[in-house]
Amino acid sequence: MMVTAEQYRAALRRHPAGVAIVTMMSAGGPVGFTATSFASLSLNPPLVSFNITHTSSSIEAMRAAISVMVHLPGADQLELAQRFSRSAEERFSDPALWDTLPTGEPALHGVPTWLRIEVDRLIAAGDSTLVIGKVVQIHCEDCPACPEPLVYHDGGYLCTQPLC
Questions:
Q1: What is the pLDDT of residue 33?
Q2: Which of 2, 21, 57, 97 is most buried, judged by most C-beta within 10 A?
Q3: Three-class SS of 41-105
């Protein structure tokens, strides 16, 4: 029995995913996208992964990138996550939302946690590329409590609540 694209999407819509925003600098300027495939891969060395589809407007920049930023927005940053899931022209159109790190990557203002990643390898897999990167810098904003995460589930954004 063949699994259809509709069946696949319907099943995976039931699995919640954390939201990450990946940014990088390209020859044409800053590039970024929202990713729900971000995952921890290895503690030693510190590796993470995410994927990007081959039809993404950011794929060529990703293929050329040496390093990227992975931002982990809080639940109060829904608008920022939505901005990076819309058209490429809108993502960096407001210069008040970002700065460039001394290492060259675009960093988004106000995101409580980000990781600077050196691209280790790109692996073509189906209609996507799996990106594996080594974490070389981490920023965790000093907060009295861990920021509430932004989650994507069933086609929409959610925040979390304790079960007990």
A1: 96
A2: 21
A3: EECCCCEEEEEEECCCCCHHHHHHCCEEEEEECEHHHHHHHHHCCCCHHHHCCCHHHEEECCCCC
CB neighbours (10 Å) of residue 59? 17
Query: Scanning the structure block, which residue is given the tokens 């990227």?
Result: 68
**Identity at 86, one-letter amino acid code:** R
- Specify the 3-state DSSP secondary structure of 3: coil
Q: Give the sheet arrangement for strand 150-153, strand by strand.
A: 17-18, 150-153, 156-159
For residue 116, give the nearest of 31, 45, 5, 23 by alpha carbon: 23
8-24 per-position pLDDT tens digit? 999 999 999 999 999 99
Residues of the chain with pLDDT under 70: none
> Rounded to whole angstroms, how far apart are CA atoms 65 and 120?
10
Asked if 20 and 52 count as a contact pair (C-beta separation under 8 A), the reply is: no
- 134-158 pLDDT tens trace: 999 999 988 777 888 999 999 888 8
Q: For residues 124 and 111, give the distance between their C-alpha atoms in angstroms, rounded to a whole number.
A: 30
Tokens representing 48 are 């993470």
